[in-house]
Design brief:
Shape: globular
Order of helices and strands: EEEEEHHEHEHEEHEHEHHHE
Strand content: 25-35%
Number of helices: 9
Strand order of the largest sheet: 5-8-7-6-9-10-12-11
Distance between the termini: 29 Å
Length: 285
């Protein structure tokens, strides 16, 4: 189990013997929800009433990923992360936990030890992740595989130099915090959309698709690019429900005009390109 820091005073949090709450020496206490996660995002640190992905976005993503459309990406992440050594790993922006579950399954096959934290600012995402993890454990005697946290990348409730590998998959990097929690020699592995990602879908819902210059997601004076791979594959979506799940789980539906949403709602079949950068960075000392 990871050591956690109090989000209010940054003192270490200790889990009680019942594993039902975390408490620091200053008396700040955080209960473990019945689903198995802990909320370390105090009200005063929220920028909105319900930050992060909505319940609808989380549900749509869970359904879409359950259909294995992004399995090639899950396999690529495992290939990059698993190096035969025991690791402490933080998934910063874990969503509903799909990639972390897939990574743990691959680690088991390779008999590699992973001690993981899954963190997301969306309570709906972490709730979904923790519930799915609890369902997996209910029929076994295993200890929980992941510490699930509602928290922000801007204030990661982990000690300095505590993480070997930090994942940020389609997330929002906070360079200073990522550098703080990574151990010396640790790796930051990021997945970001490349220029052709979901292009066919964008062409339907937007009147015009503007290309943006590609740039690294973290500052070059802080992070050195150690490895860069482009992963591109095709998705054949033949069910209207799956098309709507893809739309709902991305920001594109909410940015589109009413006409664009109507065109998307009428789709019964579409072939789209998944195009992503998988990059590994190391901290510049």
């Amino acid at each position: 189990m990871f050591t956690l820091n109090c989000p209010i005073c940054a003192q270490p949090l200790l889990c009680d013997n019942s594993h039902r709450s975390w408490r620091c020496d200053n008396g700040h206490s955080f209960d473990v929800a019945k689903q198995g996660y802990v909320n370390l995002l105090p009200v005063q640190n929220k920028r909105s009433k319900d930050p992060g992905d909505s319940k609808a976005m989380v549900q749509a993503r869970a359904e879409f990923l359950r259909a294995k459309y992004y399995q090639p990406l899950a396999d690529k992440i495992a290939q990059v992360v698993l190096n035969g050594k025991p690791q402490t790993l933080l998934d910063a922006g874990c969503g509903e936990g799909y990639y972390l579950r897939e990574l743990l399954a691959q680690a088991d096959l390779r008999q590699q030890s992973l001690n993981c934290v899954g963190l997301d600012i969306s309570k709906w995402a972490v709730l979904s992740a923790a519930k799915q993890a609890a369902a997996t454990l209910s029929a076994s005697t295993q200890e929980p595989r992941v510490t699930w946290l509602v928290a922000s990348n801007s204030q990661i409730p982990l000690p300095t130099d505590s993480v070997d590998t930090l994942l940020c998959l389609f997330g929002f990097p906070v360079s200073a915090e990522f550098k703080r929690v990574l151990k010396p020699g640790g790796r930051l592995i990021m997945v970001d959309p490349a220029s052709e990602h979901l292009l066919e879908l964008k062409q339907i819902i937007y009147p015009q698709v503007n290309s943006k210059p590609e740039q690294l997601p973290v500052p070059a004076d802080t992070w050195q690019l150690a490895d860069e791979q482009r992963l591109t594959f095709t998705l054949e979506l033949t069910e209207r429900e799956h098309i709507q799940h893809l739309l709902t789980m991305t920001p594109h539906l909410y940015r589109a005009s009413s006409e664009g949403r109507e065109r998307a709602a009428a789709l019964e079949h579409i072939t789209v390109t998944a195009d992503m950068w998988v990059r590994t960075f190391v901290s510049v000392d």
